[in-house]
Amino acid sequence: MRPNNAHLPKLTLDYPMSLGVFSEYEEAQRAVDYLSDHEFPVQQCMIVGTDLKQVERITGRLTWGRVLLGGLASGAWLGAFVGLIFSLFSNENGLSMILSTVLLGALFGAFWAAIGYAATRGRRDFTSVSQVVATKYEVLVEHKSVNQARELLSQMGGDAGRAALAAQETTYAPRDDGPQRTYSESLNDGRGGATAQPTPEGQQSRPATERRYGQYQQQPPQQPETPTQG
């Protein structure tokens, strides 16, 4: 049975175009917040983190003493919780029950931690924390409102304004097939597809290949007109 996600907002945009590429998430967030403060329909925006990488921060050296001490502490906390629950439904001395479960939990935690550390066979004698982060954050906006959003960000100044101007210059500049491509370009282009080109003022630009987040929708080819016999 598939989960019902009808109440969740869809992660889709119609013909997304780049509003700017930022090196920090806070900068992309500040740009969208600026648009919201100026009554821009921010429901047409999306922040996409690209060029993912995993960062692992080493926090210390791991020894048998630290392993056993950590197992004792975690087991003791678990034993205290179990003992407290049991004492609420027992007529016996609650304090003695809690102390006994704490002792048993500490021994079990130390034993389990020792087994886990022994299984590594000294190949990972350190502790660390890891996180997956993005290198760049691109703000996308639907093509029908991209000009309005860029005008607002150009008034903001700073990194957001420069990013909006750079995205506008990239959109209207001659394109090449170099390896450097933003998320919105790869989203709209497809393989050999055409991108949205600037049109006269007051008209909406639409790409030849309609692209939604996650699927292509190819327009059907037009049938040639057959000449009528006079």
If you had to describe this structure to a student in words, what would you say it looks like?
- InterPro entries: GSP17M-like_dom (IPR025889).
- This is General stress protein 17M-like domain-containing protein.
- Keywords: Membrane, Transmembrane, Transmembrane helix.
- It comes from Yimella lutea.
- With about 230 residues, the chain is of the alpha+beta class.
- The chain has 2 domains: about 15-55 and about 130-215, no CATH class; about 65-125, no CATH class.
- The chain has helices at about 25-35, 65-90, 95-120, 145-155, 160-170, 185-190, and strands spanning about 15-20, 45-60, 125-140, 210, 215-220.
- Helix 2 (about 65-90) packs antiparallel against helix 3 (about 95-120) and helix 4 (about 145-155) packs antiparallel against helix 5 (about 160-170).
- Mean pLDDT is about 75; it is low at about 170-180 and about 190-220.
Main traits of this protein?
elongated; three-stranded antiparallel beta sheet; single chain; 2 domains; 230 residues; two-stranded antiparallel sheet; 43% helix; alpha+beta
